[in-house]
Amino acid sequence: MAAIVNPDLDRCRSQATFDPLLLTYFIYDGPEKTKRRRFLQHLALKESKKVNDCQLSELSKEEQYEVALQKVTATYRRIFELGLQDPADISLYRNTFIEGHPFAIHVLAFLPAVQKLASEEQKAKWLPLIERFQMIGTYAQTELGHGTFVRGLETTATYDPKTREFIINSPTTTSAKFWPGGLGKTANFVVLMAKLITNGRDCGLQSFLVQIRDLETHQPLPGITVGDIGQKFGFGFIDNGFLILKDVRIPRDNMLMRYAQVLEDGTFVSAKNDRLLYGSMTLIRSHMASACGRALAMAATIATRYSAVRRQSEINAGAGEVQVLDFQTQQYRLFTQIASAYALLMAGEESSAVYRTVSSEVETGNLQNLPILHALSASLKAFSSWQMMFGIEQCRLACGGHGYSSASGLPKLYANEVSACTYEGENTVLCLQAARFLIKSYNAAEKGEQLPSLAGFLQAPKGEKSRLTENLELDQLIAAYEHRAARQVREANSRFLSHLNKGATATEAWNQSSQSLVEAVVTFSHAFVVRAFIEKVTSSVLEPSLSSVLIQLAQLYALHGITRNSGQFLKGGYMSDHQLEMVENKLYELLAALRPNAVALVDAFEFPDGVLDSALGRYDGNVYEELMEYAKRSKLNKTEVHPGFFKYQKPFVDSLKSQAVAQSRL
Ligand SMILES: CCCCCCCCCCCCCCCCCCCCCC(=O)SCCNC(=O)CCNC(=O)[C@H](O)C(C)(C)COP(=O)(O)OP(=O)(O)OC[C@H]1O[C@@H](n2cnc3c(N)ncnc32)[C@H](O)[C@@H]1OP(=O)(O)O
Ligand SMILES: Cc1cc2nc3c(=O)[nH]c(=O)nc-3n(C[C@H](O)[C@H](O)[C@H](O)COP(=O)(O)OP(=O)(O)OC[C@H]3O[C@@H](n4cnc5c(N)ncnc54)[C@H](O)[C@@H]3O)c2cc1C
């Protein structure tokens, strides 16, 4: 029997001015893909329940690990049985079946690292085993003492030409590998980043395939000390681990030799470009805007549906309590996050497309656009994970007290997803990487050189004024963001030069201007996202009813950024006070205009309830019933009287009672 839908939520749905199904097609690339998506999600949820129906977030870390392992093995068993081949189908099926699992780094980093860094011969030998999970691996780069500064890694791989082996060592406490996902208990292989030493010479960082556990007994091999790193902020289902290597010998052939090689006599042949070694990091970074957009879309769905169901306080005295979604402050909080989710999803599509283009160029030996890909993937990874982090928290706060309950699904979403600000490169550090590209491009532009299109905005004439009017022209919104970015890059460059002129070395001057550089990179990414959002909406063939709502959403995204950073748009008189006031007024108008469409905008993401895993975000809006059920399931309710009552509480109360009696007798 179909569940009765909460009438407030039902009414919100009926108020929509567009057909959400058309928006779903727009998000997921047409009716065919949407149909397939629904089919796979339905199948995955049904089968997942059969394997184990418990909620991971209700379990201890050890239990989470075990259930996640049970589920991920069942997932892949089914993926093979179903014959799924398309990576998009596989990740959709897996991510619906299970929210997270210990094979994540095997799939996301170990496999791509071998694909990218191994020679053809090595790939032919290892990839079939890796793809069929006969080898399960992780990407072991970070050490206790170094994550960011990769050149500072201390693990050594010393070549012994007599035996044609590398001898791997962790020479110091800080050289222990630390953090790799799946290392603690799951992996039997690692792609290991280590300093290559051959013929007595340090040849810098290289990658090696190292077996760490026996394939049958799973015991660590001789010379290997390995384990889990313990409780974390989130990601309880992944066994991030540590690894210490002592005189571990691997054959010469286990160095991943696509780009650099060590010959049998120990001669080192260097790569055409050392940075190719960082390829799997770039791959993940390039796809992270989409992943962040998805996470924010989940949070926005939960908070928006709940805000349609939740009634509290009156706007007009005596007229009854209103849906909290009717408060302008709530609309501001939530609609700006819905807009951000869409913006990140579109920007993610764009950055994945850039990744595909540049990586196929790299495959043919053309490295010309590698710096562009690095700058874009690094800066967008940082920007989108920061926006997602801030956005999920806004959604959680927008749910009031119930947002603090695990039943809302929001605490675990935040705790898991916030790690994206750190893994694959700490955000600030990645911004500073992108800053190198922007500053170089800026100086090239000053010399009148042609710039790649990504940096083309730096060539815009200075001293322009904004021509944005009440019509909120989309080209003027892009122009405003690109003007702001160009100005921030120029200012950061001036700071850098002024420190140089005062006698600082280049690296000191860079450090003294680094906050300014990071801010410039944030404005650059923001401009990229605004452009990607607007271009995707305007270049797609859409029903007018849908197109007008998406344009409103893109305008809201852009206006929100202007009001939050108004100082930067006012600088140099680019925008006038009058324009800024107009922007604020228009933003408030857009909130009211989007109100009838809010629920449809999040419904269109089509997150199944089983994926949202939230009492507040249920499609049927039966929030209160589910919250009560959730409370009743609390483990503390298993007994009417907790044993702690007799162990601690009663003796304590009784002791005070007898003391009081004793005192009253004095
Ligand atoms: C459908 C398709 C599906 C596809 C699937 C796709 C996947 C989908 C993904 C979805 C995800 C959701 C699920 C998540 C689950 C959990 C996952 C958790 C995973 C966590 C894994 C990790 O966490 S794993 C460790 C990552 N650990 C770092 O991330 C270290 C940061 N640290 C550095 O990255 C370097 O250390 C740092 C700072 C650059 C300095 O390195 P350094 O000192 O050597 O370099 P310098 O600063 O001197 O720079 C020297 C020159 O190299 C240039 N350059 C530098 N990097 C470059 C590069 N990558 N490419 C090109 N060029 C590069 C630079 O631009 C300079 O160029 P120039 O000189 O011309 O300016
Ligand atoms: C959930 C999770 C999963 C992970 N999975 C893996 C994995 O599978 N494999 C793996 O190898 N690693 C993994 N890591 C490690 C991760 O990649 C690193 O933690 C990350 O790259 C940050 O490096 P760090 O820890 O050394 O931070 P640090 O660099 O020590 O950062 C501390 C502070 O110093 C600042 N800082 C550092 N250097 C600079 C600089 N040059 N300029 C300005 N500021 C600077 C940072 O901005 C930050 O504020 C994982 C981490 C997490 C949290």
UniProtKB/TrEMBL annotation:
Residues 22-136 form the Acyl-coenzyme A oxidase N-terminal domain. The keyword Lipid metabolism applies. Its cofactor is FAD. The keyword Oxidoreductase applies. One of its GO terms (cellular component) is peroxisome. Residues 474-653 form the Acyl-CoA oxidase C-terminal domain. It is found in: Peroxisome. It comes from the Eukaryota. Its main location: other. GO terms for biological process: fatty acid beta-oxidation using acyl-CoA oxidase; lipid homeostasis. It holds the Pfam family Acyl-CoA_ox_N. InterPro entries: ACOX_C_alpha1, Acyl-CoA_ox_N, Acyl-CoA_Oxase/DH_mid-dom_sf, Acyl-CoA_oxidase, Acyl-CoA_oxidase_C, AcylCo_DH-like_C, AcylCoA_DH/ox_N_sf, AcylCoA_DH/oxidase_NM_dom_sf. Keywords: FAD, Fatty acid metabolism, Flavoprotein, Lipid metabolism, Oxidoreductase, Peroxisome. FAD binds at T142, G181. Pathway: Lipid metabolism; peroxisomal fatty acid beta-oxidation. The active site is at E424. GO terms for molecular function: acyl-CoA oxidase activity; FAD binding; fatty acid binding. Residues 278-439 form the Acyl-CoA oxidase C-alpha1 domain. Belongs to the acyl-CoA oxidase family. This is Acyl-coenzyme A oxidase. It comes from Candidula unifasciata.
